Amino acid sequence: MLCETQKFHPRRFGPALAYMIINEVMEAGKARGLERVEMSWILDHNHGVRNIIESVGGLITKRYRMYEKEL
Fold first, then answer.
1. CB-based contacts of 58: which residues, under 8 Å, 6+ apart?
2. CA 12, CA 20: separation in Å to the nearest integer?
3. 8 A C-beta contact, residue 37 and residue 26
4. 55, burial (CB in 10 Å: exposed 0-12, middle 13-18, buried 19+)
5. Roughly what angle, to the nearest 10 degrees, separates helices 47-55 and 13-31?
6. 57: phi > 0 → left, psi -120 to 50 → alpha, else beta; which?
7. Distances (CA, A) of 26 to 16, 33, 38, 61
């Protein structure tokens, strides 16, 4: 079963929706006096979301890697 938002992934509306949500959260935080927010646990290969975050001024400050090994 698809997540409710997954139906927007292959369409142009998907990235626009993600951008609008991130931008609104940032603007609401600024209005309440927040100077910084953390948008973490974005996978390194998730270029779409990373591009959105970087387009609103986000910087990469940490990098996490996930590895897999069969036991």
1. 39
2. 13
3. yes
4. exposed
5. 40
6. left
7. 15, 11, 10, 18
Backbone CA torsion sign across 49, 51, 52, 57: positive
- Rounded distance, CA 5 to CA 14, Å? 8
- Burial of 15-47, coded b for 16+ CB within 10 Å and e otherwise, reads eeebbeebeeebeeeeeeeeeeeeeeebeeeee
**CB-side exposure of 13: number of CA atoms within 13 Å?**
4
Q: How does pLDDT run across 2-52, given as a tens digit for each residue? A: 566 666 666 677 778 888 888 888 889 999 999 888 887 888 888 888 888
User: What is the distance between the alpha carbons of residues 43 and 51, in angstroms, rounded to a whole number?
Assistant: 12
pTM: predicted TM-score of the whole model, two decimal places: 0.61
